[in-house]
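Progress note, project year one: complex with protoporphyrin IX containing FE.
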Amino acid sequence: MKYKSQKVAYWFFAACMLLFSLQIVYGFIMAFAHMGFDGLHQIIPFNVARATHTNLLVMWMLLGFMGAAYFIIPEEADREIYWPRLAYVQLIAFVLVGVTAVIGFHFGWWEGRKFLEIPRPLDYLVVIDVLLFIANIGMTIWKGRRMTTTSMVLFFGLLMAALLYLPGMIDTNNQTTDSYLRWWVVHLWVEGVWELIMGGILAFLLVKLTGVDREIVEKWLYVIVGLTFLSGILGTGHHYYYIGTPRYWLIIGGVFSAMEPLAFLAMAIYGITMWRKAGRHHPNQIALLWTVGTCVMSFVGAGFLGFAHTLPQVNLYTHGTLVTAMHGHLAFWGAYAMLILAIISYSLPLMTGRKRYKGPTASLAFWASNIGMLAMTVAFGIAGVAQVTLERRMGLDFLDVQKEIQVHFLGLVIAASLFTVGAGAFIYDFIRYGMPNAEPTGSPLEDGDGDQDESSDAELAPEVAE
Ligand code: HEM
Ligand code: HEM
Ligand SMILES: [Fe+2]
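Model obtained:
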């Protein structure tokens, strides 16, 4: 850690860990409900558990991105955060709004629009909070000593993410118009601007962890940004197939969304190439594993499994079934959850001065969570294909089919338990790392002379006893 104010990232990441744990709890509530054990129904009905599970997910992702930006931008811009105190205020406000929203869901205070359930008054608070965050990192870059491609891509990704939240707030009584606009937020986030945020964070991590030249890493960033926009914007059409929008969306959505995996493929090749080019052995290999893992798993979950149901001929049958949940889990996990766990794995040793990355729990966290999540994806996939066959092809009633596929959720629970062991190991390590240091713990080479040595960090930092 080069600058004192970067340590605010620690608190964003701590909030991530808390919400991530809660998200898993609600996942299990739903998995058991799917098996027929719905004892909590009176207090937490399925729809409430689902909204809580997915909104906690989105909240911890946003907190993770903000934490990542507060860690990365000062290093890239070569200065302290412009308004360090505002960062803390903004974190507390965000968590308070999030907790209020989640409690509200349990009392029926929500909008009932998948992923955008947060009630309108709280939406305004979210927007204000995120704009303050954007202003803070924007000023840090503006007043900084250098503007790198990495920080600009990260900044524009975050700014666009904030602005794209607004179309989702347009009021309408028309179901089709509502869906149409909802996808501007949900789709253009995960298959558009969040990919820019991802590109920016990955570029930072790869520069630091592999020692490959910044020029080379950032050249790839342009390719990824180009492919993302080329395919992702019109790719929104894969959500407009049979919802009352004009028929031309069938062809536009089909063609452009079929090209979306290319951006993720480029990321996978990028991660692996940089890994192989690595000119030196960075001591924090586990952070590198999470980073390259993100590149690969996002291709599998988002690219490959996204493609699996993106053509209109397929989506006609799979829409809104557990096939979607299959893809949703591995895509969110592979692209964004793993990315956040990567930046946490990289930055914690630097913020706390401790090096737990060599311990067995760090490896357990990576392997158990990834194998568990892959197995969960398979379980959802089997349940999903069975559901599509029985309900959509054979015309059985929705609830009869849900009974038929209950058995597959035993597999889900077993897989999710393995996943939880991994996630638990990660959180355990996070706690064991302890509090961040009051003063920067960077290497002697990180002298803040504006001519930063790209390869400098933990490798050269003096060993600090645990
Ligand atoms: C990291 C990137 C991605 C994430 C996090 C993600 C996540 C999700 C989620 C959560 C849903 C359900 C949304 C809802 O019903 O409200 C969804 C739907 C969908 N995704 Fe993705 N996705 C990603 C990338 C992709 C890509 C690249 C493709 C295509 C190649 C794709 C194709 C689809 C399709 C076709 C649906 C609609 C499913 C349905 O009709 O029920 N996704 N995605
Ligand atoms: C112990 C772990 C978990 C369990 C047991 C679990 C279980 C579930 C269940 C049962 C659903 C509802 C499916 C339905 O609509 O019937 C669901 C939805 C969802 N979960 Fe999880 N989950 C877990 C962890 C996660 C994680 C770590 C992520 C993201 C990284 C995630 C992302 C999602 C998403 C995006 C949806 C909505 C999918 C859709 O739109 O169809 N879950 N989860
Ligand atoms: Fe999409």
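The two ends are 17 Å apart (CA to CA).
The pocket of protoporphyrin IX containing FE (ligand 1) is lined by residues 114-115, 186, 190-191, 238-239, 257, 260-261, 298, 302-303, 306-307, 309-310, 315, 319-320, 324, 327-328, 331-332, 335 (CB under 6 Å).
No further modelling is planned for this target in the current period.
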